[in-house]
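Sample 3 of the quickstart, ligand zinc ion:
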Amino acid sequence: MKLLKGTALYSIILGTCPICQNESMYKKRNPFILNQLFEMHDRCTHCNTKYKIEPSFFYGAMYVSYGIGVALGVAVFLISHLLLKTNLLVSFVLICIAVIGLLPLEMRLSRNIWINLFMKYDKKKSKKTSQNA
Ligand SMILES: [Zn+2]
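Result:
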């Protein structure tokens, strides 16, 4: 993962601050702790970036979430129906299980993608803060 540091992919996969990538944006890193799925820090303690740049900022992540959900459903269908040769009903059940089971992960991923569309990694802020820490 160290190889990816500095790329948006690093922040998207790990849920780190999009600017310095030194700490997690979420209070609990595990997305499957459902009652704290959306609990985020207000600001990064390293670079002081405000995550929610405007009220209801993360509502836009719904559009990303929709795309991820459709992609996941299509992927499960292709694997189950075309590769494993299951019938349509079994494929449908598998799609439901995958989409519902991975929903917390999908929610986090969509938020991470959404915030990384608006903020870019800043090498100076990342180094400055890691030397101070
Ligand atoms: Zn930061």
